[in-house]
Amino acid sequence: MNVDGILDELGILPGINEVIVTTERDGVPNAAPIGIIRDENVTVRLFLGTHTYENVLATGQLVANVTHDPMIFVEAAMSDLGEECFLRRDGVLTLKDAESWALFRCSPYRTDIIMPELEFVRGEVIRREFRAINRGVSCVIEAAIAATRYNALRVDSYLEEIRRLKRIVQRCGGPREIAAMKRLEEHLAASFP
């Protein structure tokens, strides 16, 4: 099977794939929600000064973990995940509850925003779950992205976006999505008392 076929099997499809990227340096694990961009190449956008960027710069690799758990996206976006959230599989640091994972090699370079090309190394499907699309999950992920941008830029339009997305989560999400949205609001309130 070619690399495109393998990435399809792992759930990393053409377009921007929101995943939780795991990295580590000096034995310290890190997780962050990041978009893996798959078009004619596979790339990722990393930002200077983040733990993910520094870890990738030091190790030359990252792991894309596919998960549909909105709480993991919120926690990884707004705080550090506890060690209980990670698991080594075949020597690779992954999310414990990942549905699949893919190890990539990349060579970042020092600039404010980088988009290195990723080279697929190996991966594994842990479990296949068939599910309908839940708008609540998508909205929680969008809200987590807006929250990280608000934290970085302090632009009020991101708060308006979060409020709009919350209404959709309340209408379309299940208990896990509603709890994740509440947790996101708690993180924001703690950041700006």
List key phrases describing it.
single chain, 193 residues, alpha+beta, Pnp Oxidase, Chain A, Methane Monooxygenase Hydroxylase, Chain G, domain 1, two-stranded antiparallel ribbon, globular
Structural commentary:
The chain has 193 residues and is α+β, with helices and mostly antiparallel strands. It has six helices and ten strands. The strands form three sheets. It has a six-stranded antiparallel β-sheet. A hairpin with a 2-residue loop joins strand 6 (86-89) and strand 7. Helix 3 runs parallel beside helix 4 (135-153) and helix 3 (70-78) packs parallel to helix 6 (175-191). The radius of gyration is 16 Å and the shape is globular. The N and C termini lie far apart (53 Å).
Write a brief caption for the model.
This protein has 193 residues and is an alpha+beta fold. It has helices spanning 3-10, 51-59, 70-78, 135-153, 156-172, 175-191, and strands at 15-25, 28-38, 42-44, 46-47, 61-66, 86-89, 92-95, 100-105, 113-114, 119-125.
